[in-house]
Amino acid sequence: MFSCKVAGGKRIAICGTGTGRGEAEYRFGDGEPELVLSGGRWASVPYSGGGEAQVAFASGDTRYVVFSRIVRTNFAAGEPNDPAISDGVIVLEGEEVIGFQLCDDPDVAAIDYDLAEAHFPRADDLFSWETDLAERRPR
Predict the structure, then answer these.
(1) Closest Cα to residue 43, out of 60, 58, 65?
(2) Number of structural domains, the chain?
(3) What is the CA angle 121-133-126, rounded to 5?
(4) pLDDT tens-digit readout, 86-105
(5) Interval 20-61: pLDDT, tens
(6) Which end of the chain has a smaller Cβ tally under 10 Å, C or N?
(7) Which structural domain range is residue 12 located in?
(8) Long-range contacts of range 43-51, CB-CB < 8 Å, 24 or more positions apart?
């Protein structure tokens, strides 16, 4: 339901577990995953000219928030909206950002809303608004 490679070639993925119980997990690493987490929750919000989906997993006080977002960057009348599209993971300890990785992959599989809805409980609000770092970071 989500997959991409980040700088350095490691993969971020959210995959079904194959148990037949509608479970999915977060996986990070190259080849054999370095980190596997289950028990995620998901949220989405519409934006003018776009929107964002997030799936969050926790390990103690650390949260891994996978995101897919489309943000309108041009509001001039008669002009195209020039959307900024970004996907990645933000790592939070409490509310502090301790890690941020953007997908660096032409073949990103963005968060699939239907699969997220089928595999995770839905939250009322996004888990972090810090994903706007994607637009503030040079690529």
Answers:
(1) 65
(2) 1
(3) 20
(4) 999 999 999 899 999 999 98
(5) 666 899 999 988 999 999 989 999 998 877 899 999 999 999
(6) C
(7) 2-136
(8) 43/122, 43/123, 43/124, 43/125, 43/126, 43/127, 44/113, 44/116, 45/125, 45/126, 47/71, 47/72, 48/72, 49/81, 49/83, 50/83
